[in-house]
């Protein structure tokens, strides 16, 4: 054994002391250990209840410190060789912990923080400038709530063990923190059990001074326990992971890439489309551990067996006429206002609903939105074929009135490895992006984890599509000739920020400017007209795409989109840094007027009728004169357009599906002629919404088409009305899918499809557009008077019951008596009053003789019978009760 | 038999002297309905809450039929809550044949006038008249099915009511004469004719008939069962009762009056009177056989017709259930039918406003009290059955009226059609209830409520200026007036019996 010492001095200066152990010392109050010449190597201070502070400074040789009951100030400074630091408290309630390790603990290997029953937030500052090389244990037990681990990059941290994990938010955050920042992390051992049972045992061991052996034992027991229980443990052996990674190197690593696509819009606005893609290889080949891929999303996929999922938060409505209705971005990123969620599950049919419910709750927690309202069976539906063919495992729900704000954006950004601290996402200045005309934040998840044969892993696409109005005042309204110049813009003027270089974790990080076909043709025409000498690159080095516009930063390359004849200019942002931020300008030289490519039919939906009793919904489709020439490849004689309509109606809008009418060019058409396929699942009161799916066949030359449905407005119970009942109720957007049209850019360069944003733009999707949300005002009852209604109604019931029973009960004899008493009352009110005042005896005396002899005798007889009956009953009762 | 013939003759004379052409007025009523149907005023009667309820609305029936044609359950979507048999009978009538293709359906008023055919200058008038005839025909196709059926139902009901009334009249005359109160008979009115005309000319009935719902048919079946019971046709009575209960649940209470009618005969004064009267003075007046028969009736009811009725009811019920089962075989089956029809009526799931008292109560009542109040509402009807049956034992037809009135007050989805039914049944007792109190007040109340209620509904639902409470107040007032009517008619009927007893006792005293 090492030389030990038990004492209670306030200052120790023994030069050759190597092992300092203080146990159960009542007198120890302040302890200070300092001086570089000390040879103290181990220090243990246990169960000194009156101790108030411990200061250890400049002890060069100190290797381990162990403290129990540290509710006092613990200050550690400049202990360069410290490898083991163990803090433990056995007290029942720990009110306040002040623990400061503000020193260079550069060699710290084992940090054990071991608390039970923490009551309040305990500030534990472990301030290290750089996290030491090998921390093997980070042990925590009890309700340790908050850690301050500032400015640590944890480059070397390999093992973190959390014992007594409760799953509360701060702990979760801590784990998240470790997973995100701990680059070299090998093991995170989360042990949800409590350490209480071990406690007494542990104390015994301390007294026997077999501390080291015990630690060995303890750690092993935890390890074994974890393997057995797997309660919340996430365990990955480093060696295993290494071999697996070597084996599955061909299936790919995790990938992250970011891109921003900017496009000038005809109505003087700018579309900005952020696209982030995270990709995780399949679990079979890669394991559960991810460096880049968000753990929460991975767990969603694992837990709910998601095949596909899309969640979008949208504010504003995509203007199909002005911003385009026939390109990949409008098809896949124009979303209905509010929240839209759909998911395809890879579970047996009977479990789909349960999975959906759990998923909504998980997402609502993840994104701080009321997605959990979609849990209710009246809020979601399972479209069969019009939305997406999925074999009945698709669930679809929308919340049209959900407000979208930064609280939804922040968790969305948290899924990105760089958050909004680096890379393109730094542009997301909240005031600027919420100032826009349209804002749609989308999360699309597709996974084939459960295809055992070929599994390419999970792909998470996060897009943010916004339509912004460039600042007019900055450029000034320049009038050139008759038409106004489009406003000039730059990244800085749009977002108020510049890009300070890429997110280091992303594979590719580019900004693109997309010029549409119509714009380009306008520009070239303009150039031809002017016949000015135009070179691609100006003298100043800035790009002049055409005489019409100018981009100061030269693009790295020009990508021509095959069939669309539009141009994409690529600007890589890898070479930019904080000192040299990237800012992209866009200047117009001449006024240009162009229009976006339209969908073959523009869709809108109306509410007809007045009053709060009934109404009808009409969906009108107007031709944009495109269908004919888009479809002329088909047989010319029978050109028909296929239009799928998918409409969900909440149950309180009671739709009469038999009133479904189809009008083509204003004429009523028989349903059998115009509709190819109809599927109706009518709404069930308070159970399920009504779903209408239909495929219309319209002749190409039709100018317009409309379908209409009548409905009755339902009346709800007062509890079912939302707080702002008079605002009305929303009917979610209908979805119109044009089956014959597909969007998707075509690139001549095949290698481009490896860049995620291009692979997304290349996807052939059926053209779709959403209609407006309808607001249906419903009649409201008076919310303030349930009590009045109950009492008045019950009064009527009482009136009915009482008076009818009275009428039945009334007998002739009684009536005669009543008549007589009435006659006697007619004597005059004064006498009546007098009689009342002087008692009723006189009145009774007057009335008594009136019954005839016969009736009185019968009366007596009846009385006798009654008395006998009662007496008999009483006797029987007495007899049987004893 | 002689007496019956005599009574008939006398009544004929009376009717003629009264200057009262029943058939003329009845034909006029039917004609009036037809006129209303063919020249529809756009009152949107089909969707008025007073006229059609969620249970009886034919618009909902059309939806159910459409769903059934799509091989779905007609009860899918909580739209239709009626009988599957009604669906198969009325369903095809709601389908409008659309230019040869029977695809579109509507049992609703024609929305547009016919587009005039292209006149090719041949004979303008000829073509015009042809077009008009075609329009009439298309109109006929459009609306006729259901509406004509309701007109037919209404006329059949009127005829049946007349039949019941004549039975009651004969019984009334005879009873009074046997009691020696022949002078009372002199002033008696032909109550059957009056009741039938009240039924035909009641604005409520007319509205219901024109308003596209199944109430006229349900009323007809109820009246049919009463007619069968009055005339002693046991199978008919059982059929009507079973079908009526199947269609709208509440006529199930009619089993009490029907059994009494079958067992003990039609309405009359308390039977004790006859026994007293015949024992003391019967020998002098009337033939002995009649008194004897009445005496036997007074002491106990005939058991045979009641047993027969039970048998027939069982037969019809099983037949009905089998039919329903066949028509619902592919979908939900009988269990779903009971849940969606009776369950819908009993649990008041639809809270849309109507002229009853329950919708607003259940829209406002706290969720945890809902079951309790459901119990209270239904118990209020149930608890009255026995006391009424005991007290009005000798007047089964009147008992039927009281039951129908009570259920019309307290049922979950009442309509004016129910009032039309009980008001015409009330008119059967014009002679007995001659001294009813507050009759003018009640008449004014009915008129006032039926004028105010649409106004309040309009203010609340359409204009948004009123409040739900306004409309509910009219519903409460309506319920109160109905209650007063029921209570007053019951007490005046009891008074009438009392008066007869008194008169007969004086008569008896005179005779003795």
Automatic annotation (TrEMBL), chain A:
Highest taxon listed in the record's lineage: Eukaryota
InterPro entries assigned to the protein according to its UniProt record, in alphabetical order: PIG-T
GO cellular component, one term: GPI-anchor transamidase complex
Record GO biological process: attachment of GPI anchor to protein
Keyword Transmembrane carried by entry: yes
Keywords in alphabetical order: Membrane, Transmembrane, Transmembrane helix
Pfam families: Gpi16
Spans through the membrane: 787-808, 863-880
PANTHER family in alphabetical order: GPI TRANSAMIDASE COMPONENT PIG-T, GPI TRANSAMIDASE COMPONENT PIG-T-RELATED
Descriptive protein name: OLC1v1006768C1
Species per Swiss-Prot/TrEMBL record: Oldenlandia corymbosa var. corymbosa
UniProtKB/TrEMBL annotation, chain B:
TM segment ranges: 21-41, 221-243, 249-266, 306-328, 372-390, 436-456, 468-487
Membrane topology term: Multi-pass membrane protein
Location of the protein in the cell: Endoplasmic reticulum membrane
Keywords recorded for this protein, A-Z: Endoplasmic reticulum, GPI-anchor biosynthesis, Membrane, Transmembrane, Transmembrane helix
GO cellular component term, pick one: GPI-anchor transamidase complex
The keyword Transmembrane helix belongs to this UniProt entry's keyword annotation: yes
Pathway note: Glycolipid biosynthesis; glycosylphosphatidylinositol-anchor biosynthesis
Signal peptide: none
Swiss-Prot/TrEMBL GO biological process terms: attachment of GPI anchor to protein; GPI anchor biosynthetic process
Coiled coil, from the record: none
Family under the similarity heading: Belongs to the PIGU family.
Protein name as it appears in the record: OLC1v1029571C2
Source organism per UniProt: Oldenlandia corymbosa var. corymbosa
